[in-house]
Amino acid sequence: MITTMAKVRDICGLDDNAGIEDEQIFTYIEMAERQVRRDVFKYEHQVQPSCHPKTGLSWNGTNTRFQTKYPIADYDFDQTTSDDVTGIWIDSDFVVQTCSITVNNAKYGLIDIYQSDGSSAIPSTAEDVLINYYWNDEEIEFSVLEDMGTLLVCHMLQKRLTEPKAVDITDIENDKKLLFLKNRDFLYEYRDLVKRYSEPLLEGT
Length: 205
What we know:
By secondary structure, the chain is of the alpha+beta class. The chain has helices at 5-12, 22-40, 142-161, 172-180, 186-196, and strands at 42-47, 65-67, 86-90, 96-98, 100-105, 110-114, 128-135. 33% of the residues lie in helices and 18% in strands.
């Protein structure tokens, strides 16, 4: 996960009496993961990998090393990129086969592509090899992604907890805790952090 329920509760200042269950926070975390992927990463869908960066070889029955755009992103936020590239290859009969892909070096986009058995190279008779992955313009440490996810989830919770229907005039003490959340603009902090790790838009002069 991009963040933890404990960290969200800590940053958002929510105790067990706030009326938010862990299951609800988990749902918001999943939503935040999808949003961070859209805001920070770039997605390549069914594209051909580049040839071996040193030999220039494509699939030829022996070559297994290819290159992607880089650095490869940690798509599933599990603090490793080893399995974050997927793909297919199309055999000479135009039957779609599954690739077994391992990320060798995420920083430089080096991947090893095999047939589904994980050891045989893609044959030279293959019609095509197509891969899917996320990447970014620079490496982003997981701690930064974790902060992004935490801030975004806190924003989502803030919106929910400070809605008029969530405020009970018969419970002033708890209402004070909820209304205090408005003093922190989690969305602004999130956007500011995303901006630091996103490609700037081109400006005309």
